[in-house]
Amino acid sequence: MFACRDATELMTEEREGALSGWVRVQFRFHMLICPHCKVCRRQLDEALAVARELPPEEVPPEVEEKAVAAFRTRVPRRPL
Fold first, then answer.
1. Cα–Cα distance between 20 and 8 in angstroms, integer?
2. Other CB atoms closer than 10 Å to residue 3's CB: what's the count?
3. Do residues 46 and 22 lie in contact, with contact meaning Cβ atoms separated by under 8 Å?
4. pLDDT classification of 47: cutoffs 50, 70, 90
5. What is the largest CA-CA distance in the chain?
6. Contact 36, 4 (CB under 8 A)
7. Is the pLDDT of residue 64 over 80?
8. Which pTM value belongs to this model?
9. pLDDT > 90: what percent of the chain?
10. Could you give the C-alpha distances from 31 to 17, 23, 69, 77, in angstroms and in order?
11. What is the DSSP letter of 19?
């Protein structure tokens, strides 16, 4: 069964058009029926919009390093 954890782990890939086949179908169905994941997706979209507005020179190097490290050390996705 496709769960919220699966959906949240795939949100970035879905935005990039990287989902295919059955995974894409499951993701879209889950997003139709799950109010919690809809909120999570909206928050992700808002965070990305704010990040796009920041000029690169305004982001301190240590903040950028922490953000990159956080993405690199995230828990690996389990197979669907």
1. 16
2. 13
3. no
4. confident
5. 44
6. yes
7. no
8. 0.65
9. 25
10. 15, 12, 28, 18
11. -
Q: How far apart are CA 1 and CA 20, in angstroms?
A: 17
Per the structure block, which two tokens stand in for 72?
């690199």
Tell me the residue type at 15: R
Does residue 78 carry a pLDDT above 70?
no
Pick from 17, 8, 73: nearest CA to 43 = 8
Q: How many other β-carbons are positioned within 10 Å of the β-carbon of residue 37?
A: 20
Compute the distance between CA of residue 52 and CA of residue 76 in angstroms, rounded to an integer.
Answer: 26
Could you tell me the two tokens for 37? 């994941």
Environment class of 24 (CB within 10 Å of its CB; exposed 0-12, middle 13-18, buried 19+): middle
CA distance 13 to 19: 6
3-state secondary structure of 18: coil
